[in-house]
Amino acid sequence: MAPAHDPPSPASQEHAVAKPLVGPLSALDLARKIDAGGITPAGVVELCAEAIAAREPEVRAFAALDVARARARAEAAVAMLSAAPLRGLPVGVKDIFDTADLPTAYGSPVYAGHRPAADAALVSMLRRAGGLLLGKTVTTQFAFMDAGDTRNPHDPAHTPGGSSSGSAAAVAAGMLPVAIGTQTGGSVVRPGAYCGVAAYKPSYRMLPMVGCKCFSWSLDTAGLFAAGIIDVAFAAAALTGRDLRVDRVAPAAPRIGLARTHIWPEASPAMQAAVELAARRAQTAGATVVEIKLPPVFEDAFRAHAAIQDHEVHRALAYEYDTHRERLGPHLKAHLAAAVDITPEAYDDARRVAKRARHALADLMGEVDVLLTPSAPGAAPRGLESTGQSIFNRMWTLMGTPCINVPGVYDESGLPLGVQVVGRFGRDRAALEAALFVERAVAPASGA
């Protein structure tokens, strides 16, 4: 294979610059301070409460909050929480996961005031791991494209992305050290990129979706947000009990495939420069970087994602569409109306295409450890009507592979530009380790 492209010209380099992360609370740093007795879980709740008081009126990241309950729990069970995997850290959960003690509206007026009888499986895992549920974070309506009220913490005139808008924005604004979201197209990686935080979409089915409002059962995947790669890996390890932490030893130099894909021209000059900057700096730091040309089946898979998603959502939201159509957002209502034309035959054909592409990707990943691609077409768009495009995420969601937004690069206006690391299915720790390598190569001050 040909080597990675030469560094971009000076004219394109000035579109992407590296600077250290600022603002978010480090989950790993807080856990270490709890271990050392430097702070208690209740003290961390107070840090979050102070940030919420200062930033929430502008950012609007929460659909429901219960700081008092989290504070009382932290004070009553300090010893137990401090010894638990998540150390009593406050966590926000996207408002499409059922919670027994907080309302769950799925971002829709159809379910305003809805109180589920039980927690979603992932929420129960969170509690068992010693996490404190601080609040429900804003989602777009039924996790689709009709935007909510959340603003980008870097500039409130810009979208935070979606559909996990509140989760990404709350972490970026320092209101939470950890938050949970979901991705069906690009709803974890893209808002992570727009808000400048680490975002981790695990391998498909690693995290349970029982008790989460379904959009597309073949694609919906739970994910995590935190300040940096070591933080999101720590949170994932604590939540799942898996060996996912990457902070204990220096990451090995990975073999990186620079994957421009057939939609590379859709990326802004700044985003293209950001990916090339990350590849160049990773190579300088010792990584092997090669140019990857994806076979034509991936273009077919890119198109197959829409057929699979839309055929399934027409069934997953059948009740809402049939009985509350007038209360659905305009984007969702139009999408569901169009989805009726996707035949079972077209759906089955799309699933076969996806299977062929997954086999092709497994063969391709025998030559590299991870792929490096854009996390989004560019920085967060101005305006709150759109949550941006998921074109650089959909195919990888369909593949079921771990995908991680690596923060640390900004455009010349100061808005974040995320680069995406795509790993092999089921090799999540290796993907997180490679993402940490890239993060430290791009912005060394962000590594711990």
From TrEMBL:
Lineage: superkingdom: Bacteria
UniProt xrefs under PANTHER family: GLUTAMYL-TRNA(GLN) AMIDOTRANSFERASE SUBUNIT A, TRANSAMIDASE
Q: Which InterPro entries match?
A: Amidase, Amidase_dom, AS_sf
Q: Mind telling me what this protein is named?
A: Amidase
Query: GO molecular function terms here?
Result: catalytic activity
**Family (UniProt):** Belongs to the amidase family.
Species of provenance: Rhodoplanes elegans
- Sequence ranges assigned to domain Amidase in this UniProt record: 44-430
